[in-house]
Specification:
Helix content: 55-70%
Radius of gyration: 18 Å
Strand content: under 5%
Order of helices and strands: HHHHHHHHHHHHHHHH
CATH superfamily of the largest domain: Hypothetical protein af1432
Number of strands: 0
CATH topology of the largest domain: Hypothetical protein af1432
Length: about 290
């Protein structure tokens, strides 16, 4: 990672620090001495997070046959590692919804992020990937670096955004030309500082250029495809710019093809509606 990206993240580190509950859960999941009950007790200290997690566990996102009424039960049925990712997702949305960013509509930003997360999870299931919750979180957080850059260097990022909106360059290419790094790298550096598993960091770093991925190449390809689907869904009939295209390497890695994207988008619609209803109140609290 370039030093410039690390310096940019360093400048926002105090603002963008995860809640203590999220940090503790992250540590406990990697500690074999911690039980589901122990993790449940820590999460339960945060009443808002507890309510959000229980709503998620009882949504169509999981479609469990019986009601999940306690966090310790949620840890058991969802799984410790999967719940770690959900705690991270909800905590990150809460953290960044409180950071001043003037260049973007935050509701629109998080709508794209949630849709990308839902689609990534569906693409992962089509690829028969186990524990697909991590792909929901990778999709949800794939553009987190944009918010860092909009906060730290708003005028320069504004130029990059203008270039991307004119259709002359993609946003990440405009950022690379201007800074020498892009929002994907910045987001990955921030996740590293949060002590998030390396595979998720690499997925975020490489979702625009999956050839750079080493350990998480399939995950990066899945988020890349999800991002293309989400970006296409936001195009209106009046848009005359280039339509986002899937990197052929992503088709090779996933075994999917262009014809399957419509089906995946149709499957995503109801899941997105429910997932957004869970995330939107957190965004509104800003």
């Amino acid at each position: 990672m370039t030093m410039q990206a690390k310096e940019m993240v360093k400048g926002i580190a105090k603002l963008a620090s995860l809640p203590e509950v999220c940090v503790r859960v992250n540590e406990m999941v990697d500690d074999p001495r911690s039980s589901a009950a122990d993790i449940g007790k820590v999460i339960s200290r945060d009443t808002a997070l507890t309510a959000q997690l229980l709503r998620m566990a009882n949504s169509a996102f999981y479609n469990f046959p019986s009601k999940v009424s306690t966090i310790s039960r949620a840890v058991t049925v969802v799984g410790e590692r999967e719940l770690r990712y959900l705690v991270l997702a909800l905590s990150a949305v809460r953290t960044f919804s409180q950071i001043p960013v003037e260049l973007i509509n935050m509701a629109s930003f998080w709508r794209h992020a949630v849709y990308c997360g839902v689609v990534a999870r569906l693409v992962a299931s089509h690829c028969h990937v186990l524990h697909a919750e991590r792909l929901f979180v990778a999709g949800l957080l794939h553009d987190l670096g944009m918010l860092v850059m909009m906060n730290r260097v708003p005028e320069q990022e504004k130029i990059a955004l203008a270039e991307s909106e004119s259709g002359t360059k993609t946003l990440n290419q405009a950022e690379l030309d201007q800074f020498g790094f892009d929002h994907a790298e910045v987001g990955s550096v921030l996740l590293e500082q949060w002590n998030i598993p390396a595979a998720l960091c690499e997925t975020v770093a490489c979702h625009h250029d999956i050839s750079k991925a080493e350990e998480a190449r399939l995950d990066a390809a899945i988020v890349h495809i999800a991002n293309v689907i989400a970006s296409r869904a936001e195009l209106s009939d009046e848009d005359d710019g280039p339509v986002p295209e899937v990197d052929p390497k992503a088709w090779d890695l996933t075994g999917l093809n262009e014809d399957m994207l419509t089906q995946i988008a149709e499957e995503a619609a109801p899941m997105f509606a429910e997932s957004w209803s869970l995330i939107q109140p957190i965004v509104r609290q800003a």
